[in-house]
Amino acid sequence: GNPKFRLFITAEIHPKLPPNLLSRSQVLVFEVPPGIKQNLYRSFVAVDPKRAAQGDKKPRERARLHFMVAWLHSWVQERMTYTPLGFSKKYEINEADLKWATSAVDEWVDMVAADRENFDPSKLPWKALHALLGIVAYGARLDNRFDQRMLEAYVRGLWRPEAYNIDFKLADTGSTKVPIPDGIQRKDFVKWVEAMTGQESPEWLGLPNRSRQMLLSRQGKEMVQKLIRIQNIFEDDVGEEGGDEKKEEKDEVGKPAWAVRLHASCEDWKSALKDKKPLSMESAEIAAGGNADSNTVLCALKREIPSVNRLLKRINTDIDDLIAICVGDIKPTQQHRNLMQTLSKDLIPPSWKKYAVMPGLTVSAFISDFGKRFNRLGELSRESPPAYHSCGFYLGYLLFPDAFITATRQATARAFKWALESLQLVLTVGAKGGSAADAGFNLAGIHLEGATFRDGKVMLPRDEKLGEELPLCRLTWKKSEEVQKGGLQLPLYLNSSRSQVLTQVSLPVDTSIPEHTWYQRGVCLVAWKDA
């Protein structure tokens, strides 16, 4: 080939970009500097002259509204960097949404002002603007109803006639207060943006102050995992090229470096699963007698047990085959090669991933987690069905937790002969014991994120910790009209990635805290939490 040949590739940052391609390339990353000021500068100050001139058109109230659109856009963009705390996932919010939102606001302003120099801000159709901005312009991109709820609450708090008062706050959470700029021309707001100094706080976004530490910690873990994967791939590529380096990459019996690493890992994984024997629901079915098929929770567990047994057999078979390949007893098939390639990158093979796990989970962490799930299911398989109402279910360790929740609802409806659609889930924190009288079930290992639970209600943490494990919780289903009103509806996610919502529950909260504050802090429940 031509030694002067160069290939230029442009791409978005994406987890599916091949690590070996990145390791062999010179990578230039063009990323917008983080921070509200940088976002505001790009969306309000550094715009084309035609758009800038629109902000100084009459009426004079227009400039402030343009600034508020830019602030909202910057707020959304900056919260996206705190995913999954800011939003449950990253959404494609871009400059096109900003332009459309500005144009929509201009149309309403022109309609209300009727070519006058000034108009009364209270005459603006604020509810229509809430819908345009919170549902159409930005909300249309969101597919999580709790993200949508949080965005709409923030838009309602920001877009109101009081925004023209001199004491109005763009951010007002605890010790953080950001007053809106005082001005009537675009240049007044530009000057305010350019003069922004000091350390920006996540509290400007309504997030806990320690959110940045959490974000950096998570990014550090992800970076270490990616470096390990790239290093393994690079070492394997060097070993395949031959020469002196290839000889150095072999041990005393001539094994390639990848085989040495894989063999050691397989031995560790096999050791972690060596005491795991196939589970059986036979004793539970015998205890249930003729009611075995009508017990919905038992049926849900009967689905879990065969699934975990099949997965255990699959993993053990693959590990044994890989060990035999590493020692030279058998020759690898294409299926084995694919498996080795996946494991060498510290990725979980698709044939093992039979239930949802945290993104980026390493293979060793997956094996450890699977062992814990197996042990928990083993304990449940030895329980008799009447004891289900008093034992503790670790919801996050079930392979199909959503099916279990559905089964508890069906069990309650059958026990009290209630209609399924009339039932609402109730979660009581700090439950003790339990019996079949309320047809409830105990849940253990539930974590509260973004708040703390004190004195029987959800409260803001005193020490700014980002979450805690709740004591034993009691899951019951009651008729909607019997459920006490006034609690806060919180999402119950499968894990901290917040990618899968299991259900929503109502918990009592500190009523002195505005409702939108809980939404903006990203308060939620999590069924599975990594150590």
Counting DSSP H or I runs of 4 or more residues, the number of helices is 17
What is the N-to-C order of secondary-structure elements (H for helix, E for strand)? HHHHHHHEEHHHHHHHHEHEEEEEEEEEHE
Strand order of the largest sheet: 9-6-13-11-12
Classification by helices and strands: alpha+beta
Q: What radius of gyration results from the CA coordinates?
A: 28 Å
The pLDDT mean sits at 86
Instruction: State the low-pLDDT regions, or none.
Output: 238-252
Distance between the termini: 50 Å
How much of the sequence is in beta strands? Answer: 5-15%
- Record field, number of beta strands: 13
Write the layout of secondary structure elements.
Layout: H1 19-23, H2 36-45, H3 49-54, H4 62-80, H5 95-113, H6 126-137, H7 145-158, E1 169-173, E2 176-179, H8 186-194, H9 211-241, H10 243-248, H11 257-272, H12 282-288, H13 296-326, H14 334-344, H15 363-381, E3 392-394, H16 401-416, E4 423-429, E5 441-444, E6 447-449, E7 452-454, E8 457-459, E9 467-469, E10 473-479, E11 488-495, E12 501-507, H17 515-520, E13 524-528
Parallel strand pairs: 3-5, 11-13
Antiparallel strand pairs: 1-2, 4-10, 5-10, 6-9, 6-13, 7-8, 11-12
Helix pairs in contact: 2-4, 4-5, 5-6, 6-7, 11-13, 11-15, 13-15, 13-16
